Amino acid sequence: MWKTIVRRLFIMIPQLFVLSIIIFILAKFMPGDPFTGLITPETDPARIEELSEKAGLNDPLYVQYIRWIGNAIQGDFGISYTFKRDVGELVGERALNTFWLSLFSVILLYFIAIPLGILAGRYQHSRLEKSIVLYSFITYAIPTFVLSLVFLYLFGFKLEWFPTSGSVDIRYDEGTFGYYWSKFYHIILPAITYALLGTTGIIQYLRSEIIDAKAMDYVRTARSKGIPMRIVYSKHIFRNSLLPIAAFLGFTITGLLGGSIFIETIFGYPGMGQLFVSSINSRDYSVITALVMLFGFLTLLGSLLSDIIMSIVDPRIRIE
Amino acid sequence: MDVLLEIKELHTGFRMNDTFYNAVDGVSLSLRKNEILAIVGESGCGKSTLATSIMGLFDQRTTRIQGEILYQQKNLAALTEEQLNEVRGLEISMIFQDPLSALNPLMRVGDQIEEGLIYHTDLSKEERKQRVLTLLQQVGIQDPKHVARQFPHQLSGGMRQRIMIAIAICCKPKIIIADEPTTALDVTIQAQILDLLVELQKETGAGIILITHDLGVVAEVADRVVVMYAGEIVEEAPIKELFLHPQHPYTRSLFHSIPQMNKKSDRLNVIEGIVPSLIHLPRSGCRFADRIPWIPQEAHEENPQLHEISPGHFVRCTCWKSFYFNTRKGERYV
């Protein structure tokens, strides 16, 4: 198994290489340049030329690419044009914020979705099932930004229960209890919004898996042993039904760093999603390319992680 | 003769479009101690439905069971799910057709065998593990310690069916219902599994209800045979009697359609038509009449009953008296 994992990690290298070329070219073809906003129609063309030359934008594309990829391999993704900061440092800081928000969101999501999915599947044709399905369709139909805005307005501005933007209150110093509490406090509202809206997939998956599993031959075998239905559910039906959820777990884990563009933007939460949008808007190449490379890497890693998790939970799947 | 299980006028109906259609329609039979009773019939005749009804494994919302299934003065058809659990696995157990899908893919087979012991016995954990190993040995598995830790997909078809049998016999049940236990297996393995069943039956004295559509299997192991067609019993007889003197047109057609090695023929004999679906099943008159249209209507009974034509040999309807086959050349022979 370890051999396979190492091999799969090596296979990622050419995949990431191809990805890097595509990203680089796409980034270059984006309209506009990082100086948008810095220059006005009155700016001296010689000044623009000077800025471009300084940023290396006048070199041939392949030279720019080699320079970029060479630095990237060493962990140097350059300086953000807009933030005037080291990209690695900037992304690291945002990734940490996003990680905590996502982690709390996903835990909350599983806490809501798994019990609901199990109940809906177990009590098929009941009123309970119908209300759970209705809930999951309603939340599926509500756009994230709508509920985010409603919650922000209601709980943030009207009731003032939760902060309306940021990731921490500036009054607190890093390391104090107040600081961490404040961080958590800023996460709650966006996390609840995310968790309430994200349940559909898991509920529907679990529900239909359980309904399918109930009709399986091995469930009939279990019942023919004379064991109580409660045990048939917990030992035979639920375990088998959770497999597809486990299959997505790898992507969910690596997805923790991806962040949600809508949630972070609306709640003014300085995370990866927000950074991604703002860097695109300001043509901040070094940040965009670093982020897309990171997302690509995470997706590849997620699929590997999913395979590893599947091989642990399902004895029929073995990584050889 | 001790009667282990007696079924009286059993009707099992499935709900379709808010009406119940009986797949088993008025079946009465009894199983005696030390007996292997074979239930034969083609697909859709209700034989598996009968077996599943005995175990009470149907969803009660979509199934309706009427009649009596008497086991030790208890009517199994009237028990609740909890009461049934006292009987299932402990007194009556079941072996299913396809052992791969009938075993939980995520559980070690040892644990699956042990499960019944947890709920039906007071054995300690070590005693249960020990019992699992004994059971595995009993069903002819060479390396029980190793096999107990395997998952179903790691075993061969024959081994899996042995595991199913070990599950079924773990609490020494009085009755074993084997629902086509050899259908999913290779012919060579089939014989082994049948031998094992017969051997275990002799050891434990359990009664076995063997459900099959394979007359070869029946000939090999059964003591008594019940032939079912369209939800009804059409013929019931001791094994020798049935094979030597089959009477009902359906039974005779079944035998007639077995290919014969010593007779040269270019085409197989078949029974014309198909088994009527549940919805279109004629609920009165002889249900086999449509498939032997050359027999005049007067030959059939209006309300076909089982008639005892010799001790222990029952035949439904009167049409058997005037039944004959048509050869392809148009000759008739009896």
Automatic annotation (TrEMBL), chain A:
Alphabetic keyword roster: Cell membrane, Membrane, Transmembrane, Transmembrane helix, Transport
Topological type in the membrane: Multi-pass membrane protein
InterPro entries in the record: BPD_transp_1_N, MetI-like, MetI-like_sf
SUPFAM superfamilies named in the record: MetI-like
Domain ABC transmembrane type-1: 95-306
GO terms, biological process: transmembrane transport
Compartment list: Cell membrane
One Pfam match: BPD_transp_1
Main location: membrane
Highest taxon, organism lineage: Bacteria
GO cellular component: plasma membrane
Keyword Membrane: yes
Membrane-spanning intervals of the chain: 9-27, 99-120, 132-155, 184-206, 242-267, 287-313
Entry-linked Gene3D superfamilies: MetI-like
PANTHER family registered for this protein in UniProt: DIPEPTIDE TRANSPORT SYSTEM PERMEASE PROTEIN DPPB-RELATED (PTHR43163:SF6)
Family recorded in the similarity comment: Belongs to the binding-protein-dependent transport system permease family.
NCBIfam families for the chain: Opp4B
Official protein name in the record: ABC transporter permease
Organism per entry: Lysinibacillus antri
Organism lineage: Bacteria, Bacillati, Bacillota, Bacilli, Bacillales
